[in-house]
Amino acid sequence: MVWVGNQTLISHFILLGLFTHSPLHLFFFSVIMVMFLVALSGNGLMILLITIDSRLHSPMYFFLSWLSLMDLMLISTIVPRMATDFLLGRGSISFIGCGLQILFFLTLLGDECFLLAFMAYDRYVAISNPLRYSVIMSRRVCWLMVAGSWLFGLVDGLIQAIFTLRFPYCGSQEIDHFFCEVPAILKLACADTSLYETMIYVCCILMLLLPFAVISASYLRILVAVLHMHSAEGRQKAFATCSSHMAVVSLFYGAAMITYMRPQAYHSSKQDKVVSAFYTMITPMLNPLIYSLRNKEVAGALKKLLGRCPCWGGAGLG
């Protein structure tokens, strides 16, 4: 605690976490740990396959490898800390630690927002303009898109981390959340945060609404192109792929919009924690499954990798 005038400013926070130690919550904790392991193995495997298999060295898989890396880092920023606090029965986190978690989390969240938009645009170009695809989506353009995603995410993370921790915090140290998320922290500020909340809202229009609009427009154009396909099998496959992609994208963007674009007065701690779990844990687990489940090239790369493994040699996978 630090005394300033008549106010006691706090020097650290206490994260209350997502669970209590009831039998039901212990079960949910076990489920989340399984999801964490699935996300780590799924995204790690995607990165490995895309790196070692030359058939997957195309713009679509280039973006997918970066998405997997971002998901890997995003879930690792949140879950290990949450699990440690739950198992050891502590939740204390310093100002600096909280600021770093905000920085890493929002940087990765912003990265993913823009990368998903670029991935949707890549699919639109591939289907709508296949003859010029290799020219439009050149290696240089792909790297610029990824670098732009990281740059925009980093700028957003730095701005929000710095401004959030500049407010004076007095009274309660308890953040009713399982990680340092900006809306939950602002509830403890002993100063007017309305101007900053307006700034967050404007940032979210740039970071969430604009990429989501690009994704929606891209998939709409893709569906129009698909409807003109002569092959019924091709139409069915494209519809199945687009619908699964849009389902995960809507889950990710929808949860983030609910958290960051609602006025502070409408935030409920229990609801915020559940919504946050969707884009910090569930979508990082689902992304490698959704983007590779119906993909014959990824399945072929996995079969080829397993064929190299001596323990699978006798299984006829080579």
From TrEMBL:
Where is the protein found, in the record's own terms? Cell membrane
Stored InterPro entries:
GPCR_Rhodpsn (IPR000276), GPCR_Rhodpsn_7TM (IPR017452), Olfact_rcpt (IPR000725)
Please verify whether the record's keywords include Transmembrane: yes
Main location per the UniProt record: membrane
A family per Pfam: 7tm_4
Q: Which UniProt keywords apply?
A: Cell membrane, G-protein coupled receptor, Membrane, Olfaction, Receptor, Sensory transduction, Transducer, Transmembrane, Transmembrane helix
The record's Gene Ontology cellular component field reads:
plasma membrane
From the record, give the transmembrane residue ranges. 26-49, 61-79, 99-121, 141-163, 199-226, 238-262, 274-293
Presence of keyword Iron: no
Q: Which residues form the G-protein coupled receptors family 1 profile domain?
A: 42-291
Q: Annotated Gene Ontology MF terms?
A: G protein-coupled receptor activity; olfactory receptor activity
Membrane topology recorded in Swiss-Prot or TrEMBL = Multi-pass membrane protein
- Role, per record: Putative odorant or sperm cell receptor.
The identity of this protein, by name, is Olfactory receptor 56-like
- Provide the species name: Enhydra lutris kenyoni
